[in-house]
Amino acid sequence: MKICYLLESTELWGGVRTVFDEVRALRKRGHDVSIRALGGDHRWYPHKVSIHYVNDLSVPFRNRKCLPDVVIATFWTTVKAALHLRCPLTFHYCQGYEGDSIEFSSLREAIAEAYRLPLPKVTTGEWLAKRLREGFGPDAFKIYSVGQIVDLDIFRPLRFSPLPFWKKLLSGKAEGKVRILVSGLFEASVKAIPDALHAVAILKKKGHKVHLTRVSTVDTSHQERGITEIDEYHVYVRSARMAKIYQSSHLYIAPSLAHEGFGLPFAEALACGIPSVATAIPSHLSFDEKHDYALFVSEGDPTSIAEAALKIMHNKTLRENLSKRGIEVVNRNCSSDLVAARWEEAVLSEELACSRHAEAERTER
Question: Among 1, 60, 173, 234, which one is least packed by beta carbons within 10 Å?
């Protein structure tokens, strides 16, 4: 198949990396996959990727031979451009419903209008499909859930544990600090980064030795240090370096709110075997029905986050179980082959539906 993804920007964002990973996975399965983007710089991506930068996503392809079989809108603003290209199949790929974000509150009607277009939707999980059915009706459009890719070649556990630190911690002889990692954009309300920072502040106030590492795509360290001291602050981190940051951490906190589309950093941390505290939101809970791969807490509750972190810090068996289960569930659910195969199933299903519709029209004539 010839497939074309439409992107507004190729800058380093989780949603962009997801598209790049899907392109790579589908290419491995023999498909001709391209990306058309308005701008950006994709050199941060660790694998080779070819981007066609244009001034207008809806500009027609040069000839019929270049026309893709499938075009995929990746953000609500790209949906109309995707339709304008008039490819045989058009999908709207949703990694989170943008209308739920406070930042897009003034654009909610325009976002809803884009979603009301009767295009098949592809989501990162069934929790998001449920959200769309509730918001737009069960029969407004077809929805396929494909999951999300974690690059398991990069995000993986170390072969040995360099952390005898935990034994020293329990004996009160620890020379270092518990390395807690929090990643995400401080200014994005859905990430709820302030809740994690307040939780760390609680731990420090109680006298616990904590080393806080923050990772973000934008430097807002000045604002964040108004909440608690930050020991390391990394901005615009590429995947290979990010994997090392995960692997050098003792504990990960994922404080996102309920409308989080997936929570890719949380999944990456689990893949690296890092014991984690996460909010009990639909996307975080979707990895496995047992919900035993992280300690889950209510959203918006820094005290509960701090208490859960202490449980992990002082319970060796719990840490080991969380590490093992996290690796298992991500490796099972987030492989590139699995997600690519689900995309293929969605496309084949739509092709069959279109074929049946065309046959019905011919019969009526």
Answer: 173
User: According to the model, what pLDDT value does residue 165 have?
Assistant: 57
**Domain shared by 169 and 278, yes or no:** yes
By residue range, what is the domain housing residue 191?
Answer: 165-332
109 and 232 share a domain? no
Q: Are residues 274 and 322 in the same domain?
A: yes
Find the CATH number of the domain harbouring 122: 3.40.50.2000
CA–CA separation, 72 and 33 (whole Å): 11
153, pLDDT greater than 70: yes
Does 33 map to a domain? Answer: yes
pLDDT band, very low/low/confident/very high, at 161 (cuts 50, 70, 90): low
Report which residue type is found at 281. Answer: I
The answer on 177 and 326 residing in a single domain is: yes
Could you read off the pLDDT of 93-129 as tens digits, one per residue? 999 999 999 999 999 999 999 999 989 999 999 999 9
Same domain, 140 and 195: no
Torsion angles phi and psi, residue 279, rounded to 5: -70, 145
186 CB-near residues (< 8 Å, 6+ apart): 193, 194, 216, 218, 220, 223, 224
Residue spans of alpha helices (H) in the chain = 14-28, 79-84, 108-116, 126-136, 165-171, 193-205, 221-224, 239-247, 264-271, 302-313, 316-333, 336-364
By C-alpha distance, which of 249, 94, 264, 238 is closest to 184? 264
Count of C-beta atoms within a 10 Å radius of residue 15: 18
- As for how many domains the chain has, the answer is 2
107 residue type, one letter: L
Kindly report the backbone phi and psi dihedral angles of residue 259, in degrees, each rounded to the nearest multiple of 5, phi listed first.
-90, 15
Q: Has residue 287 been placed in a domain?
A: yes
For residue 154, is it within any domain? Answer: no
In a domain, 159, yes or no: no
| The dihedral sign for the CA sequence 137, 342, 321, 159 | negative
On whether both 123 and 215 belong to a single domain, the answer is no
What string of DSSP letters covers 248-308? T-SEEEE---TT-S--HHHHHHHHTT--EEEE--TTGGGS-TT--SSEEE-TT-HHHHHHH
Distance CA 302, CA 200 (A): 8
- With a cut of 50, say whether residue 174 has pLDDT above it: no
